[in-house]
Design a protein that fits this description.
By secondary structure, the protein is mainly beta. The chain is built from three helices and 50 strands. The radius of gyration is 31 Å and the shape is elongated.
Length: about 600
């Protein structure tokens, strides 16, 4: 007879009932064997790729941004990992705070939230989205007519406000000579010390065909400075030399363009009595940010540009917004009590509208529990149930397994992190807490737990896919690659073992009348899987059993899985006593670094001595 292997993890509702272990193993369809339609496979190990200096604050990736590199917030740095050559670098600029970040991408930019404030990246730098001049700097000709004068103004760099008094005489705009009839451009940038620096367009010496082309060629402003504005100039009867030719000389065409006043984000927060944004998403090439019970939006393809009027208020309920997420061109506003879907209207002045008939009376417990997988969103609702978002409703994915809800509730809203990745046909959706980590497999609708040896949970707190590979990072900044070929956790290299991965699985033989004798117990599965040398050259699997629902256990007993090539190895335990009214539970444990698979447990069918 067969004692079925548990294919989904389950904890008892009350003390005295059995627990099913699927720990670091998961169910896989086994179509080549109709007698054993499912097999337990081992979860992947990991290989070290880098050890970052700061704690991981989140990982993100988009193929069209930063050349497809993985972006990793750690400490005060936004680091990058290039999956093409496994090299590490970082973006220019710094980030504030220690919280977990959030990110969204448009065609040309990424927006991040750190410390509740938005940051913009073009793939080479990262800087606060509210950096810039805070009032009009009024660029004009200086009292020294070759210079550019500025009025008094305030400006912000990295969230700090500075003031600059008027420079009436003006600042010399460099010394480039622009050929007759062509255009040149010079920008004026200011740093935190109040020093104004002239930044020249790179081809002023050969000239540009128009003022707009000259302005477009100006270098990107450094993250340690703010652009006050720029000047374009041309002379129709000779060379125009910046710093030498008077800006009001005869036959010159000079234009002054002030830097845009950037107070939109500050005004949006202040108007709603908020101090921080809570999430960011992107739809229609605009960024959308939640704060309080509102969400705001930016200009198209310009994350620096928003206004005090560019916002909407959640309509169905006055609940606070937890986060906004986009799936299939619908922006879902997750509140504490409701979920509202918003769509684009096509009206540039009123770009979004709520879908009234599809509002759900379900809340969300925290932003970081929301993950995208299987063309939808998974999240933890306001009652700590893990859910799958569907049109007009959300389905609890584990109504028959309330222990998962208990795990999440014990962690509390701030202690839940959602994780998701794909592997072959599987979409794994997981939630990690300090006391446990459980994954839902969309393919098989089963649950399994993951954990790091001698800890309460899995070490990794962030996961991202890039270039067909899966990368993970933990709270210390250890950045690893997840993969089936890696036989332990956080291996230093492919031949040096890391932390052992302990696999636990359960088989249960139901109640048997007459106190049936258990003569033999045999594990079926892959055999002869030993390594050529070292640990795992003669791998073992251990078994213990319980006759009272898992309240007490025998000691562990070891059996071999087979050295390399020993494919007929039998893993059998004999003379295991008699089954009682509660049946009998078998628990198996394996930690040798060999890749195993388990098809079943057979009882009393192998009587060879």
């Amino acid at each position: 007879m067969r004692a079925p292997l548990a294919l989904s993890a389950a904890k008892p509702l009350v003390l005295g009932l059995p627990e099913k272990f699927c720990h670091n193993v998961y169910a896989e369809p086994n179509p080549t064997d109709p007698q054993r339609p499912m097999v337990l496979m081992e979860t992947p190990g990991s290989l070290q790729r880098n050890d970052f200096a700061g704690a991981c604050r989140g990982m993100w990736q988009a193929d069209g941004h930063a050349s497809g590199k993985v972006l990793l917030g750690q400490g005060t740095t936004l680091s990058t990992f290039n999956p093409g050559d496994n090299t590490v670098s970082s973006l220019t600029g710094s980030i504030a705070g220690t919280d977990r970040g959030d990110c969204a991408f448009t065609e040309t930019e990424a927006m991040f939230l750190f410390n509740g404030q938005p940051y913009i990246s073009d793939g080479t730098y990262i800087r606060r989205a509210d950096d810039g001049v805070l009032d009009d700097p009024n660029l004009v000709i200086g009292s020294t007519t070759t210079n550019v004068a500025t009025g008094a103004f305030d400006y912000s760099i990295n969230g700090v406000t500075f003031s600059k008094t008027a420079v009436v005489a003006g600042t010399a705009p460099g010394n480039d000579a622009v050929p007759l009839g062509l255009y040149g451009a010079v920008a004026l940038d200011i740093d935190s010390a109040g020093t104004i620096t002239a930044i020249e367009a790179p081809a002023n010496a050969t000239g540009y065909a128009s003022a707009s082309l000259a302005a477009a060629a100006l270098p990107t402003v450094l993250t340690t400075r703010v652009r006050i504005g720029y000047v374009t100039a041309s002379k129709s009867d000779g060379v125009f030399t910046f710093g030498t030719t008077a800006l009001n000389a005869a036959n010159t065409t000079v234009a002054y363009t002030d830097g845009p006043v950037n107070t939109g984000y500050t005004e949006l927060l202040a108007d709603h009595g908020q101090t921080a944004f809570t999430s960011v998403a992107a739809l229609g090439q605009r960024f959308l940010l939640t704060y309080g019970s509102r969400f705001c939006f930016t200009d198209v393809l310009d994350g620096f540009a928003t206004t005090s009027l560019s916002y909407y208020t959640a309509e169905s309920s006055p609940d606070a917004l937890i986060a906004g997420r986009v799936i299939s061109n619908v922006y879902y506003l997750f509140g504490t009590r409701t979920i509202e879907p918003w769509v684009q209207t096509g009206d540039a002045d009123d770009p979004f509208a709520v879908q009234e008939g599809l509002i759900q009376q379900t809340g969300c417990i925290n932003r970081d529990s929301i993950v995208e997988a299987d063309n939808t969103l998974f999240f933890v609702d306001d009652a700590f149930n893990p859910c799958r978002l569907e049109s007009g409703s959300s389905t609890i994915i584990n109504p028959q397994d309330p222990w998962m809800t208990d795990l999440l509730q014990d962690a509390g809203a701030s202690g839940i992190i959602g994780l998701a990745y794909e592997d072959r046909a599987h979409s794994f959706v997981g939630w990690r807490t300090a006391s446990g980590c459980v994954f839902h497999d969309v393919l098989t609708k089963t649950l399994h737990t993951r954990g790091t040896l001698n800890t309460d949970t899995w070490r990794y707190t962030a996961i991202v896919e890039a270039s067909g590979r899966v990368f993970v990072c933990d709270a210390t900044g250890q950045f690893d690659e997840l993969g089936r070929d890696y036989l332990s956790e956080s291996m230093a290299n492919v031949s040096t073992m890391g932390t052992e991965i302990q696999r636990l699985m359960t088989a249960i033989l139901p109640t048997q009348s007459g106190r049936m004798a258990i003569k033999t117990v045999k594990v079926e599965g892959a055999k002869g899987i030993g390594l050529s040398s070292g640990q795992g050259s003669d791998p073992i699997i251990s078994m213990r059993q319980s006759k009272n629902g898992g309240n007490t256990w025998t000691s562990w007993m070891d059996r071999k899985l087979g050295a390399i090539g020993v494919y007929d190895q039998r893993s059998i335990w004999r003379r295991r006593g008699r089954a009682r009214d509660q049946g009998i539970m078998f628990q198996f444990r394996k930690s040798d670094p060999v890749r195993g698979a388990y098809t079943g447990v057979v009882v009393n069918e192998d009587t060879l001595s």
